[in-house]
Amino acid sequence: MLFLVAAVPISALSQTLGKAPTLAMAPVPLTTAQRAKETMVSLNFRIPHGYHINSNTPHSEFLIPTALKMDVPTDIVLGKIVYPAGEDASFPFSPDEKLSVYSGEFSIAIGVHPLHSVVPGKYEMHGVLRYQACDNAACYPPKNLRVSFEIKVVKEPGEHHANPAQSPHIHS
């Protein structure tokens, strides 16, 4: 028996295997957060051109939602995570079905709430954004993107005590 082996360039092979695109996260400027107060931090992501990802609330239970999971340091509480609304779109692989997706750039806002007991200073926040990317022909296996940013915890402002009212009378 004779087998013929075709030489396939590695770049063509990776395209045929359908390598999933990777999202990019913009650097997050250092955010100052007061103890005992929630501060919102905006995380900005970019999806490569020609791809989309499922929103946080896809229309089908069979689709994998985009979800952010954070590990927070002790005495810092994770507040509300605010996802953008998905954009309804249909694609050639399912022209009669509208999917809730993100494409291009999108932001997720996350509430960070340092407790009163946190020692003021810089803290590294770590997490993972799980998403499933698709193009106009197919969806790829889900991926995880590491997420990290720093917050600077500062003391809450001291209580302001007004000076007692001064007498309008002139003292000699």
Proportion in β-strands: over 45%
Q: Mind summarizing the main beta sheet?
A: 4 strands, antiparallel
Instruction: Write the H/E string, N to C.
Output: HEEEEEEEEEEEE
CATH fold topology = Immunoglobulin-like
How many distinct domains?
A: 1
Instruction: Assign the CATH class.
Output: Mainly Beta
CATH architecture assignment: Sandwich
Low-confidence stretches: 1-17
**Gross geometry:** elongated
Record the strand order, biggest sheet. Answer: 1-3-9-6
Rg over alpha carbons:
25 Å
What would you call the structural class? mainly beta
Total helical segments = 1
Average of per-residue pLDDT values:
85
Give me the count of strands.
12
Kindly state the percentage of residues in helix. under 10%
Distance N to C terminus: 121 Å
Blueprint of the fold:
Elements: H1 10-16, E1 24-25, E2 31-34, E3 39-46, E4 52-54, E5 67-71, E6 76-82, E7 87-91, E8 94-102, E9 105-114, E10 121-131, E11 133-134, E12 143-154
Parallel strand pairs: 2-12
Antiparallel strand pairs: 1-3, 3-9, 4-8, 4-11, 5-10, 6-9, 7-8, 10-12
Explained architecture:
This protein has 172 residues and is mainly beta. It has one domain: Immunoglobulin-like, CATH 2.60.40. Helix content is 4%, strand content 45%.
